Amino acid sequence: MPLITDPYFYLLSVPAVLIYGIGKGGLGGALGIIAVPLMAFAIAPTQAAAILLPILLVMDFFAVRYHYKSADYVVIKRMLPGALLGVALAGFYIHAVPQAGLKLTIGFLSLWFCIHYVLSEFGLMKAAKKQKGKIAAMIWGGVSGFSSTTVHAGGGPASIYLLPQKLEKVTLVATMAVFFALLNVVKVIPYAAIGEFDQTNLLTALILIPLAPLGVKMGVWMLHRVSQKRIYQLCYLFLLLSGIKLSADGIISLI
Question: What is the value of pTM for the model shown?
Answer without folding.
Answer: 0.79
